[in-house]
Amino acid sequence: MFRSLVIAALPFCLALAACTPQDPKEGEDKPRPAVMVQPQTAGAQRDIYPGEIHARYEPALSFRIGGKISRRLVDVGDRVKKGQPLAELDAKDLHLQLDSARAQLSSAEADHRLAKNELTRYQKLLSKQLISRSQFDTVESRFEASAARLEQAQAQLDVARNQAKYAILKAPQDGVIARRLAESGQVVAAGQTVFTLAADGDREVRIDLPEQDIGHFEVGQVLAVELWSRPGNFFPARIREISPAADTTSRTFEARVAFDNREVGAELGQSARVFVDSDAASGTVSVPLSAVTADNGQPYVWVLDPLQQTLHKRLVTLGPYGEETVPILSGLGPDEWVLAAGTHLVREGQRIRPVDRMNRPIDLDRKLAHQE
């Protein structure tokens, strides 16, 4: 009974199936959601250069005479005061020269006294016309020569005393010993650096600027400094000095960045970072790293046609990669929309439904009207 009813209803069901609409074609495209972003201006980016805290004044300390170092009185990191002895030379020979100079001065003084007494006697004889004028001139000449020899001996004694004083190297001002380049028992020449002193006072950050970017920097340029020990605290700074020549090994230019250490409180040798704002007037924009892909080594991004809501490949020229973004030097404008993720899952001309990172629809009509 039941089987006969099913067979009787079969033609009716086939007729209903013929009248119902057909399912969409399997190959027909459906707009899929896609996360879209607009490029950021490069002015919102910051270049970061690591550096180290140095003293603004770092004089190289050396002996003014050569000799053998007999004693080294300080070491690296020691704090010293102005006039404090730092090292001494073996001064035996210098003391002998000083004794010799004193003896020569005593001899010159004796000759000068004798010549003076003789000149006095000849003046009296000349007044009584007991000697000729030529005899008196001879005695007077000897007196003047003795006076010159006395002056010379006095000068030689002063030089010998100074030489003896130069055997002790003293700190020219308060500071900290930053480097030691000689040791006790070493023979050094006059002017050879023995210590480097980090003078108290102003502090600076020493950084290395890459050769390709050196044209973007100038003396007086405003920057920001952050200490590794105080992350998140940025202090105003400026470029005080840029080396006129690149380092022969690293091909970088040394720069000194000055700041107010009364506010920062930096210590010598601390690590720091210098932040440099990129030039916003250059027209350069940046996009997330996930928005960029490449084909045969040529980078490109997917750009949205706002009217058709379709994606199209756009070749671009990239700048140096950052931590999260990459600058686009050419090929993309700041008002365009690019695909921010899933670049390998789309194809040329594909329709999409633009959404933001929170999966909210983007009202392109309002965006376009605002731009117009």
TrEMBL record:
Residues 91-170 form a coiled coil. The keyword Ubl conjugation does not apply. Keywords: Coiled coil, Signal. GO terms for molecular function: efflux transmembrane transporter activity. Gene3D superfamilies: 2.40.30.170, 2.40.420.20, 2.40.50.100, Helix hairpin bin. Residues 64-195 form the Multidrug resistance protein MdtA-like barrel-sandwich hybrid domain. Residues 205-274 form the CusB-like beta-barrel domain. InterPro entries: Beta-barrel_RND_2, MdtA-like_BSH, MdtA-like_HH, RND_pump_MFP. Residues 1-17 form the signal peptide. PROSITE patterns: PROKAR_LIPOPROTEIN (PS51257). Residues 97-167 form the Multidrug resistance protein MdtA-like alpha-helical hairpin domain. It comes from the Bacteria. Pfam families: Beta-barrel_RND_2, BSH_RND, HH_MFP_RND. The keyword Coiled coil applies. GO terms for cellular component: efflux pump complex. Belongs to the membrane fusion protein (MFP) (TC 8.A.1) family. NCBIfam families: RND_mfp. This is Efflux transporter periplasmic adaptor subunit. It comes from Microbulbifer thermotolerans.
